[in-house]
Amino acid sequence: MHLKIASCPHVDQEAVEVCGRMPMIDRVTFKRSIDYGLLADAFEDAVATRRHLLALGFSSATLAKKCRPGGGWTRLFLGVYLVTGGTPSRRQLVRGALLRAGPLTYLTGCEAARMYGVRRVPADQRIHVLVPHGRRVTSQGSLLVERSNRPWDGTLINGFPVVTLARALIDAARKESGLDVVRAVIADAVQRRLCSPGALAEELKNLRLGGTSLPRRVLDEVSDGVRSAAEAWSRSLVQRSSLPLPQWNVLIRSASGAQLAIVDGWWDEVGLAWQIDSVEFHLGPDDYARTMAQHSALLANGVMTIHTVPSRLKTDPAGVVAELRGAYRAAEQRGRPRVSATLWRPV
Questions:
Q1: What is the DSSP string of 154-166?
Q2: Are the beta carbons of 247 and 225 closer than 8 angstroms?
Q3: In angstroms, rounded to a whole number, what is the distance separating the alpha carbons of residues 99 and 339?
Q4: Contact in structure between 128 and 175 (CB atoms under 8 Å)
Q5: Is the torsion defined by CA of 219, 187, 346, 117 positive or negative?
Q6: What are 246-288's pLDDT values in tens digits?
Q7: Which of 216, 236, 218 is CA-nearest to residue 276?
Q8: Low pLDDT (below 70) residues in the chain
Q9: Under 8 Å between Cβ of 196 and 126
């Protein structure tokens, strides 16, 4: 069994020369062509740094030659090589980025959010890393380096050092200019209970942190109960109208206490529900089917429900407001149904 050279960037990587005593490395350092194939087994994900390779006895000239067309290696970043050559996998690129940035480096932003399982992540494919403030390393290619003197916590995911999800989400949002994109990534993480609004608020306590206007706005929406981009559009629309403000994401129960539905908007004084009907802006087909069953349960218990598709919030806002006003007046005239309502806040 061969021992791989330590290449996890959150620990200091010294004393590489000890590997020269391993039989496999002894064979590699003879530099016969057949031995180059063994080199990949010596490094995590077949990614090596210049310092490690020089410590094994390779010369600078050899490294340069191996990275030329047909040489068999691929240079990922300055001083970082894929010793199997060819096109690197995403994992190999991430490994190379961490090695280039040096010890005590952690993944953050979109890359870290994806590792936590967040799905509606911005399309930014750069590998965003945090390094200590005094580190002399710069961004290059797909590597985005951010120096920070603000402390961070983290964990290991799939062998990579990653900051907390709250920090990753805020860092991703700070690099994004689209409000709906920021809404989508934060709503996805909160709605699926991967991250809490409280953890996000804690990250935003640092008032000197730049680029936080959009995540702060989205966090205000989330704190008000909004759990999707479409609900955020709805909230903004009602705020611009003369309608009373509803509560957002409310659990409705029958007079007997049976759970009927979780509605997107709720005017408790008249018992009017508002549902934003969309597969895209909620979770998936199963959730959509469950929503339709809930609508029937509401109707059976006398709850008037108005339905809106998200596209109309943008293309026909005046029409949506007119429908809401009409439904509100009708609900007033009918009298409030015998149901109870409580805020639904799973996180």
A1: EEEETTEEEE-HH
A2: yes
A3: 59
A4: yes
A5: negative
A6: 999 999 999 999 999 989 999 999 999 999 876 544 445 566 6
A7: 236
A8: 1-37, 207, 278-289, 291, 346-347
A9: no
DSSP string, 191-229: HTTSS-HHHHHHHTT-TT-SS-HHHHHHHHHHHTT--SH
User: In this structure, are strands 80-82 and 127-132 parallel, antiparallel, or unpaired?
Assistant: unpaired
C-beta of residue 298 within 8 angstroms of C-beta of residue 263: yes
Smallest Cα–Cα separation from 305: which of 317, 286, 319, 291?
Answer: 291
Cα torsion angle, 148, 154, 158, 159, sign: positive
Structure tokens at 93: 């690129």
* Six-digit token string for 269: 């004084």
Residue 139 in contact with residue 145, Cβ under 8 Å?
A: yes
Contacts by 208-217, CB closer than 8 A, 24 or more apart: 209/150, 209/170, 209/174, 210/174, 211/173, 211/174, 211/175, 212/170, 212/173, 212/174, 214/173, 214/176, 214/177, 214/179, 214/182, 215/169, 215/170, 215/173, 215/174, 215/182, 215/186, 217/179
Residue 39 has phi, psi (to 5 degrees) of: -65, -35
Residue 27 DSSP class: H
Residue the block writes with tokens 């205000």 = 220
Rounded to two decimals, what is the model's pTM? 0.76
Block residue for tokens 């206007």: 213
Phi, psi of 250 (to 5 degrees): -120, 135
**Contact yes or no for 145/98 (Cβ under 8 A):** no
**Is 66 strand, coil or helix?**
helix
Among residues 243, 270, 260, 267, which one has the least CA distance to residue 325?
243
Q: What are phi and psi of 56, to 5 degrees?
A: -80, -5
Q: Which of 77, 76, 78 is nearest to 89 (CA)?
A: 76
C-alpha pair distances (Å), 56 with each of 61, 108, 283, 341: 14, 32, 51, 69
- Scan for tokens 């290991």, then name that residue: 156
Beta-ladder partners of 344: none
Q: State the Cα–Cα distance between residues 169 and 283, nearest whole angstrom.
A: 19
Backbone angles phi, psi at 206, to 5 degrees: -75, 100
Residue ranges and CATH numbers for the domains of the chain are: 16-87 (no CATH), 104-223 (no CATH), 229-343 (3.40.960)
Which amino acid, one-letter code, is at 5?
I
Token couple for 332: 């007033």
What angle in degrees, to the nearest 10, is found between the helix axes of 213-223 and 229-240? 80
